[in-house]
Write a structure and sequence with these properties.
Blueprint (H helix, E strand, L loop, with lengths): L6 E10 L2 E11 L4 E5 L6 H7 L8 E6 L2 E2 L7 H7 E4 L11 H11 L5 H14 L15 H13 L5 E5 L7 H16 L4 E4 L3 H7 L2 E6 L2 E6 L1 H6 L4 H13 L1
Parallel strand pairs: 3-8, 3-9, 6-7, 7-8
Antiparallel strand pairs: 1-2, 1-4, 4-5, 9-10
Helix pairs in contact: 3-4, 3-5, 4-5, 5-6
């Protein structure tokens, strides 16, 4: 793990009118680290994640990626987003394009790569998520888990420095959750830097290097999984995990 963080949030704030959903969040993520963010609905988890690539515009604070403040004036946000991949709850695939067509679209349209080069890179990305054999299949012919893995391949094909995952399994049926989590574990094992908002507590416990608990627009507690899940220090963390255990 490098000394300087790959991602740094400094006093990050976000408000929608009078509703403040992020209240001065400070967070660092180092290269090669998987950080899982957990917490109740409405705690600010997804807003924080979406601020990291400025899909949401922060109200205050700074976002620093590899030493560069991406909230500064004159930032080429499209260039920034090529370095920060994102996977959403919904797959957002183009139904009229094959799996490979979806994965290669940005390579061809944004990066200007030839069809042959984009195709080779796209196939390699699909192979990383276990879907090379589905390259010519359309999204409507794929299961939800397969569609989400195509969405992951679409993000990693651009070779981002950081991957953001916003509840990537929440729209999936239980039978397909495991295949997406397996693909994410393999990305982690390959050294991908990942910031993951998730309600999959078992995954966070097993796969994360660090777990963040958020509530009320702030980071309440963070630490290694065995500390957060085994001996949480804050009462709000304990209450959340107790409720989750009773629901599970």
């Amino acid at each position: 793990m490098s000394a300087s963080p790959l991602l740094e949030l400094v006093g990050l704030r976000k408000a929608y009118g009078s509703l403040e959903v992020l209240r001065g969040v400070d967070l660092t993520v180092h290269a090669g680290e998987m950080v899982c963010v957990v917490g109740p609905s409405g705690s600010g988890k997804s807003s924080m994640l979406r601020c990291c690539n400025r899909l949401e515009e922060p109200t205050g604070g700074r976002i620093v990626v590899k030493g560069a403040d991406i909230t500064g004036a004159g930032v080429d946000i499209n260039a920034v987003r090529q370095k920060i991949g994102m996977v959403f709850q919904q797959f957002n695939l183009y139904p009229h394009l094959t799996a490979l067509g979806n994965v290669t679209l940005a390579l061809r349209k944004v990066q200007g790569k030839s069809a042959a080069e984009a195709g080779a890179l796209g196939l390699a990305a699909l192979k990383r998520v276990g879907l090379a054999d589905k390259a010519q299949v359309y999204p409507g012919q794929l299961s939800g888990g397969q569609q989400q893995r195509v969405a992951i391949a679409r993000a990693i094909v651009l070779q981002p420095k950081l991957m953001l995952f916003d509840e990537p399994t929440s729209a999936l049926d239980p039978e397909t959750v495991g295949e997406v989590l397996k693909a994410m574990r393999e990305l982690r094992d390959s050294g991908m830097t990942m910031l993951v908002v998730t309600h999959e507590m078992g995954f966070a416990r097993e796969a994360a290097d660090r777990v963040i608990f958020m509530d009320g627009g702030a980071i309440v507690e963070q630490g290694p999984p065995h500390e957060i899940f085994g001996a949480p220090k804050h009462e709000r963390t304990r209450a959340f995990l107790t409720r989750y255990t009773s629901w599970a």
